[in-house]
Design goal:
- The protein has a single domain, classed as HUPs (Rossmann fold).
- Helix content is 44%, strand content 13%.
- Strand 4, helix 6 and strand 5 form a beta-alpha-beta unit.
- By secondary structure, it is an alpha/beta fold.
- Helix 2 crosses helix 7 and helix 7 packs across helix 8.
- It is globular, with a radius of gyration of 17 Å.
- The strands form 2 sheets. It has a 5-stranded parallel β-sheet, with helices on both faces.
Amino acid sequence: MTLASENALVLFSGGQDSTVCLAWALDRFAQVETIGFDYGQRHAVELDGRPRIRERIATLRPRWGQRLGPDHVLPLQTLGAISDTALTREVAIEMADDGVPTTFVPGRNLIFFAFAGALAYRRGARHLVAGMCETDYSGYPDCRDNTVKAMQVALTLGMDRRFVLHTPLMWIDKAATFALAYEIGGKNLLDLVVEETHSCYLGDRSRRHDWGYGCGECPACRLRASGWAAWMERRIDGNDDGS
């Protein structure tokens, strides 16, 4: 059985990484549904952008529009209520004493995978696609490849059904993520990623940069900006005339 005959569920936040993963999945699976989580995040503006991204991405390729299935948004405010972090509270974004950024929400990706697995079980999808990345992962332990592999085993054993967790961005940096967007969907997908996706931890959509919207100062903005600059440099060095 090929991937083209199977269904997938994409963990889709409305950010750069998950949007590229959505396009990656639409290129490969027969039907692709999306799942998002409202956990009281400070940058909840990303949730507002999800419908626009889904609407636009469905128009980029005829087969993508045919393959894009329903969206699901789950309320997980309890996670935010027990998380004293810079993503769920008005506190400074900095490195904590344990060396992990204060933006780390303990258990977040584990909980996301558990709920996504439960929904995928009901929807008849065994493939979960997510944008975790160990190259630009900011030190988050639940973004590591070993964590994702452990969750794949746990979901498979706990539901007695074979699950496959795909992380297309695991070993690439932000520059390569921009490049992958261009490779998959050309200028139109790249423009969508820049214009509609949101990465800024502070939820700032008031300032437009070459790489998209954001405060320009938080770690997520700096990572995205440096990735854009590096990709532009690689593209110029490679004489790629795309934009």
